[in-house]
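JOB MANIFEST
job_type = single_chain_structure
chain_count = 1
residues = 129
[input]
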Amino acid sequence: MKQFTAIDRSTCSTIQKEAIDALAEYATARGLKVTYKRGKYDPTAGFCDITLSFALADAEPGRVEWERYCTRYGLRPEDFGRSFEHAGKTFTISGVRTRAPKRPISCTSEGRTYSFPLSIVKLYLEVAA
């Protein structure tokens, strides 16, 4: 095992790779995913952002939050992924924005994300039904 004598970019990269590899094996066995975002260092210490998340959350981004909060808005878990027509485009419900009271529903169309008021989404979901 190599002993480090200084904390620099090379040292941080080596430690980060080894730590992520070791943690990934542990996390995968427990249904978690490890991600590394960034790191910083100075001559005496190194810091990095490592995030553990549920692996299933990657399957459909937004679904977990949708299922948790959709009933607050009078919508159902089954409404996630439903589509509706508005202004000549097809929009698909992709999430909820709990900190955006005026436009809390996220929808996607042609690879872009749009925010809609709840009243518009409810109206178009009734029409589409």
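[summary]
Helices lie at 9-29, 63-69, 118-128.
The chain has three helices and six strands.
exit_status = 0
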